[in-house]
Amino acid sequence: MHGYGGVVLIVAFCGHSSYVQSIDDEKKVLALLEDLVGDKPCELFLGEYGSFDSFAYRCAKKFKGARLDRTLVFVTPYLSEKYHKNNTENARDRFDQVLYPPLESVPLRYAISRRNRWIAEQADVLIAFVTHAYGGAYTMYRHAKRKGCAVYNIAPQGIE
After folding, report:
1. How far is CA 57 from CA 75, 82, 91, 95, 102, in A?
2. β-pair partners for 42
C-alpha cells in the first residue's frame, strides 16, 4: 500500500468514455469499495474526461460520505487550466485535492495516457469497466495488471 507510512490505500478507476451508467454497476462499485477498503483510510484517484469518469466520481463521492479519511483526488493531466476541459476552480470545489503528476516534459497529446499510466503505477486497487482490448481505458487496465495492482473489472462481458 502507498500513502503515508503504507496506511492509505489508493483506489483508482478507469473505463471507456462511452460507458452507459447503471444502478447495478453503482451497487457493484460501492460493494467493492466496502469490501476492499472497509474502514481503512483511502485516496480515490479520479479523472474527468468521460462518462465512466463521471460515474466513478459519483460512486466515490457516495463512498466517501462525510468521512475525512477518504480523499477524492482529481489527477489532472494538464498543468495549465488552458488545456483542462473543466475549470480548475470547479475541480477544486468538487474534489478534496487536485494532483498533477510529474508530466511537465510530456507532449500535450500524450498527457492523458501518461497520466493514466502514472495513476496505474500508484494504485493499490483499480476498479475498471473495460469491454474491449483497445483504447486508453484498456491500456491503463493492462498496465495496472502488469504492475501487480489488484484489478476488478465490473463489465458484464469484461476482458481478462
Report:
1. 12, 23, 11, 9, 23
2. 9, 70
Q: How far is CA 130 from CA 32, 70, 100, 151, 152, in A?
A: 16, 25, 25, 11, 10
Q: What is the pLDDT of residues 36-84, one digit of tens each?
A: 999 999 999 999 888 999 999 999 999 999 999 999 999 999 876 655 5
Could you tell me the three cell numbers for 58? 459519483
- Strands 125-129 vs 42-46: parallel, antiparallel or unpaired: unpaired
Query: How big, in percent rounded to 5, are the helix, strand and coil portions of the chain?
Result: 45, 20, 40
Q: What is the pLDDT of residue 88?
A: 56
Dihedral-angle region of residue 3 (phi above 0 means left; psi in -120 to 50 means alpha; beta otherwise)? left
